[in-house]
Write a structure and sequence with these properties.
two-stranded antiparallel ribbon, two-stranded antiparallel sheet, disordered N terminus, transmembrane, RhesusRHD, NH4_transpt_AmtB-like_dom, membrane
Length: 485
């Protein structure tokens, strides 16, 4: 209460109370929008461009559907399962997040948490001075991109109906567990596991859940596995660019404030990503003789993922080290180890999400346990005295915590994703029938990505509005029916 007797949360105008930090609120809304753009259109465009032509529509639509479905589930029950009152040490209580609640002023709060205006817990450690709706928005787009990343393992063969069921089930029984355990005040948070902005909650879980789901769904058609060229590399680069630039919001929004840590995390993100891309490209040249654009995109992604667990708690030199390792270790697991492992080759992980997100996320989390700067940790994690093993003292314990936290996230996702897939398959088939796998988008959705002349038909000037002299004097003939890719 203020001296005037008016609750602090409601001083000022109704839309802008005195406690509201407009700068932090504006940045957080911007950061959330940048993360949302990573999914739609970012990954929608990237998926649509990186797959074989006949799967462009289906792949983009899987991402689009997940983005929409997560929103409804999130505000209806999943937000509070991730960041609400504790039900058990790994899970919050399910309830809607549809009211426009306010967070009270920091002066009224204990040092260990921030609360809703009604006194209920919002999160366990951070104290943003802006409406609850901002936090709901920011965390929703993180949940959405996690499901879309899982889709990358399943492109080109999963039944769309099965995917529609998978999204809310996995969000409810897997994502919320990781989010609450690591971020929302659960046992890993209390223990001091560091996941600055989603290396474990998002990327590690998506990598291993995607790989597990790919095992249960089964492989693509054999000819698709043998030859699966990108249908539009420029689209792929467009999506990749939205990912990279959007990561300024992904990691920059981690502190819940427009502060020094946010600035450091954005710079560290770009340092690690650029180094990882360069290292991956150099390895492609050294071992395969050609620089690959798709390889560069993969190196970009592993750099973004690897820095995420520690972006705001490591120094710039550490970000460089992480970039070198992010561009080399996942490169080895994807380009060398995967081709030698009978088990890895058996599981058809379409875009190699186990490597670009699972391996890179695990690597980033473990490196954070080695390289986390104690001063930066205190700025970001006020309830802990964390330090990386590199800084001595009790730093070795932090590496152990990071490893144990990773094992929990991996184990839970493998088990729960398996249960969900088996349960769905008992109701509807996980995998499309062979006749749909043969045709692709036209059979599944009745739509094709490119209804343009020049792909199996002869140009028709009467249809396309140009006379024959504009095309070298060739006479126009009726188009030939297009055949499936």
């Amino acid at each position: 209460m203020s001296a005037s007797g008016v609750p602090l949360a409601y001083q000022g105008s109704a839309s802008a109370p005195e406690w509201l930090n407009k700068g932090d609120n504006a940045w957080q809304l911007t950061a959330a929008t940048l993360v949302g753009l990573q999914s739609f259109p970012g990954l929608v465009v990237l998926y649509g461009g990186v797959v074989k032509k006949k799967w462009a529509v289906n792949s983009a639509f899987m991402a689009l559907y997940a983005f929409a479905a997560v929103w409804i589930c999130w505000v209806t029950w999943a937000y509070n399962m991730s960041f609400g009152d504790k039900l058990i040490p790994i899970w919050g209580k399910a309830r809607p997040a549809l009211n426009q609640g306010f967070l009270v002023g920091q002066a009224d709060l204990p040092a260990t948490g921030h609360y809703h205006a009604d006194g209920s817990l919002e999160t366990a450690a951070l104290e943003p001075l802006y409406p609850m709706a901002t936090v709901v928005y920011f965390q929703c787009v993180f949940a959405a991109i996690t499901l879309i990343l899982i889709a990358g393992s399943l492109l080109g063969r999963m039944s769309f109906l099965a995917w529609m069921i998978f999204v809310p089930l996995w969000l409810t029984f897997s994502y919320t567990i990781g989010a609450f355990s690591v971020w929302g005040g659960g046992f890993l948070f209390q223990w001091g596991v560091i996941d600055y902005c989603g290396g474990y909650v998002i990327h590690l879980s998506a990598g291993f859940a995607g790989f597990t789901a790919a095992y249960w769904v089964g492989p693509r058609a054999q000819k698709d596995r043998e030859r699966f060229p990108p249908n539009n590399i420029l689209f792929t680069l467009t999506g990749a660019g939205l990912l990279w630039m959007g990561w300024a919001g992904f990691n920059g929004g981690g502190p819940y404030a427009a502060n020094t840590v946010a600035s450091m995390s954005v710079v560290n993100t770009n340092i690690c990503t650029a180094m990882s891309l360069i290292v991956w490209t150099c390895l492609d040249v050294i071992f395969f003789g050609k620089p690959s654009v798709i390889g560069a995109v993969q190196g970009m992604i592993t750099g973004l993922v690897c820095i995420t667990p520690g972006a705001g708690v490591v120094q710039g030199w550490a970000a460089l080290v992480m970039g070198v390792l992010a561009g080399s270790i996942p490169w080895y697991t994807m380009m060398i180890l995967h081709k030698r492992s009978r088990f890895l080759k058996r599981v058809d992980d379409t875009l190699g999400v186990i490597h670009t997100h699972g391996v890179a996320g695990l690597l980033g989390g473990l490196l954070t346990g080695l390289l986390a700067d104690p001063t930066l940790c205190n700025l970001f994690l006020p309830v802990t005295n964390s330090r990386g093993a590199f800084y001595g003292g009790v730093g070795g314990a932090q590496f152990g915590k990071q490893l144990a936290g990773a094992l929990f996230v991996i184990g839970w996702n493998v088990a729960v994703t398996s249960i969900i897939c088996v349960a769905i398959n008992a109701v509807v088939p996980l995998r499309m029938p062979e006749e749909k796998l043969e045709v692709g988008d036209d059979a599944v959705h009745g739509e094709e990505a490119y209804a343009l002349w020049g792909d199996g038909e002869v140009y028709d000037s009467t249809k396309h509005g140009a006379d024959e002299t504009e095309h070298g004097g060739r006479a126009a003939v009726a188009p030939v029916t297009m055949t499936p890719n």
